[in-house]
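Render this sequence as a predicted structure.
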Amino acid sequence: MRHGKKFNHLGRKAAHRKAMLSNMATSLILHKRISTTLAKAKELKKYLEPLVTRAKEDTTHNRRMAFAYLKNKEAIIELFGEVISKVATRPGGYTRIIKTGFRLGDNAEMCIIELVDFNELMLKDAQPAKKTTRRSRRGGASKAAASTEAPASTAAAAEEVPAKDAEEPKAPEASADSAEEETDNK
């Protein structure tokens, strides 16, 4: 019976599942982004995030524990080096899952799982936006102030319109001879 066994077995025996997650975690650390199914990505997230948290403290014991999970020296060097230098201040949530649609063959839900601080496009969007003030719908005193300024602003706008028309060059008008030629051709 499987009472209380809540994690996804992914249709594999334990040894196959552990090897697959280890290989996927190594690939994610080395390449910073991989494409996989949604179920595997969710399990990989649970597998990898405790390793990244452990790697924040660079000790021999933590390196050996991470190596027991990843079984790849290059991945350990990358994890304790470049990855931790970017995520050291982050309290958790080191990976991001982005759904990409369904696979053609078996209609499995596909996604991209990536390390959060390595996506330059998302980092540009994450810049703090300019804070705007909220305006009341009622307005109150600001309506009265706006109504007194409105006639002055409309007068100024009316003065600007002819000035713009005067500055813009106009296209040469067609001569009467060319207009007659066009009607004759039809």
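Summary. The first helix runs from residue 14 to 31. The mean pLDDT is 83.
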